[in-house]
Amino acid sequence: MKRKFTLVALLLPTATFAQSSTSSKLFYSLMGFGIVILVFLVLREVVMWYWKVNTIIDNQVKLIRTQQETNNLLTEQITLMKGYYQPDSINSPERTPTKEE
């Protein structure tokens, strides 16, 4: 079916061009080509709606935005943790807190 539609879409402007008079060959060729493009655009929107491609793309954009926000928050947390835990204080023994403290 798809192959037949493609063949018809390709041959429609040619058939229109061959059957018209000399003065209107260009006009009918452009009309046929314009109709083919219009049908393609309409069918493309129907396919996108049926398979919910636009919804999937919107969801992916939301996921990417959320992932970027999470990455920014994690980077911020890491920088705060680096300031709190100094590398030399982790390895060096410190006095242990007593019950009085």
Describe the protein's topology.
Elements: H1 2-19, H2 25-50, H3 53-84, H4 87-91
Structural write-up:
By secondary structure, the chain is an all-alpha fold. It has two domains: 1-51; 52-85. The protein has four helices and no strands. It has helices at 2-19, 25-50, 53-84, 87-91.
Shape: rod-shaped
- Percent of residues in β-strands: under 5%
> Please, how many helices?
4
Give a short account of the largest sheet.
none
Helix content: over 70%
| Low-confidence residue ranges | none
Rg result: 33 Å
| Span of the ends, CA to CA | 83 Å
Transmembrane segments: 28-51
Signal peptide: 1-18
Keywords: Membrane, Signal, Transmembrane, Transmembrane helix
In short:
It is built from four helices and no strands. It is an all-alpha fold.
